[in-house]
Amino acid sequence: MSSSAVKSDGMPLMTPEELASSKPQPMKTLTMMGAATAIGTSIAFGLSFFTTSPATERAISVAAEYNLAPLFLSGVVLAKAVAWVNFYPLAYKSGVMKRKSGNLRANMHVYKVLSSENEDESKAAKVVLCEDGNEGKYNRANRSLTHMTETIAGQVITTLLAGVVYPTATLVCTIGWATGRIMHQCGYAEKGYGSHGTGFALSTLASEVVSGLVLVAAAKTAMATE
């Protein structure tokens, strides 16, 4: 990052337009989440069609007997709430660092150095993660770990619910999710910001498909209950 692109505190210099955009846009976030859900559910419907078995039909019958469609939907709602909470900070992040800020974007928090001689927070030196050498790789590997723990709750509950009805399809998705998470961590740690993108896309797609399988199970259960 060139010196002309940073402020006196070492952080990226943001334009007035970039700062103005650094606020949550609920409708944009909902649109993105809705699109991801639509794609995942479409793939899930195809998987459910090809992996349906007599055991699947029995599971749907039992779920219908106990009126479990609301439980399936609860799992999806939980997963989407977790996704929302993870997306929300990104709006503010755009007012702190740029998309081209590289490994700086691995920082989940930005700290300042307290000094009695410098009461102006905008000029106080900021504390961020080391980017170079093994320290940088260690920090980014842990950032990937934290990202996984941030989203794991929704993944676990939808995997359990989907697996009851569509175990084979859920296994395929779980393998895809696990592969994506490993790619995310290795790419982030070894090559830096941007190299984790493929793993992120794969794990996110797998998560959306599992969520879609739960929606399909909920719909079939509801229809069987009537």
TrEMBL record:
Residues 1-21 are annotated as: Disordered. Gene3D superfamilies: Membrane associated eicosanoid/glutathione metabolism-like domain (1.20.120.550). Pfam families: MAPEG. The chain crosses the membrane at residues 30-51, 71-91. The keyword Endoplasmic reticulum does not apply. It is found in: Membrane. This is Uncharacterized protein. It comes from Pycnococcus provasolii. The lineage of its organism: Eukaryota, Viridiplantae, Chlorophyta, Pseudoscourfieldiophyceae, Pseudoscourfieldiales.
